């Protein structure tokens, strides 16, 4: 029996990473191996210590099940997104999901962190800083049959470049989520 069987990840506390007290990563197996390596080799802890990102995680009995990093970002678009609101910018402040990784056996852990992140960004960050969008660079690796864009589309993310084609030499496509409907709902 897997340590993650019958776990309701939405009911677990989301913990902010303290690089001096990290949970065990024993057996952590995300689909993309490098996401496990980033954790095991201390990249996430170093970036948190350097104030490059902030990281939150879910654990089961002190063992890492999933993590998410958030960083500041800006959304660049070819044509104004908010023309109807008479905002003609092509660059917008945003909060980026830098990394999202979950153990393959921890079904629902990534979704729990995504839902938590939307609430956290809307309730904690947006009242303090201007940020209308959440961005993510969705990995696209056709050689290894890996395209995570569909996962983010389920949450309402859309491509910044409507063609959905990665730029030359890049293995990701920038996507964004407009927080305005969520922020408006919180104001009512």
Describe the overall structure.
By secondary structure, this protein is α+β, with helices and mostly antiparallel strands. It has one domain: Aminopeptidase (3-Layer(aba) Sandwich), CATH 3.40.630.30. It is about 25% helix and about 30% strand. It has helices at about 35-40, 45-50, 110-125, 150-155, 180-185, and strands at about 15, 55-60, 65-75, 90-100, 135-140, 145, 160, 170-180. Strands 1, 2, 3, 4, 5, 6, 7 and 8 form an eight-stranded mixed β-sheet that branches. A hairpin with a 2-residue loop joins strand 2 (about 55-60) and strand 3. It is globular, with a radius of gyration of 17 Å.
Q: Helices, strands, pairings?
A:
Elements: E1 15-16, H1 33-40, H2 43-49, E2 54-60, E3 63-76, E4 91-102, H3 109-125, E5 133-141, E6 146-147, H4 149-153, E7 158-159, E8 172-178, H5 180-187
Parallel strand pairs: 4-5
Antiparallel strand pairs: 1-2, 2-3, 3-4, 5-6, 5-8, 7-8
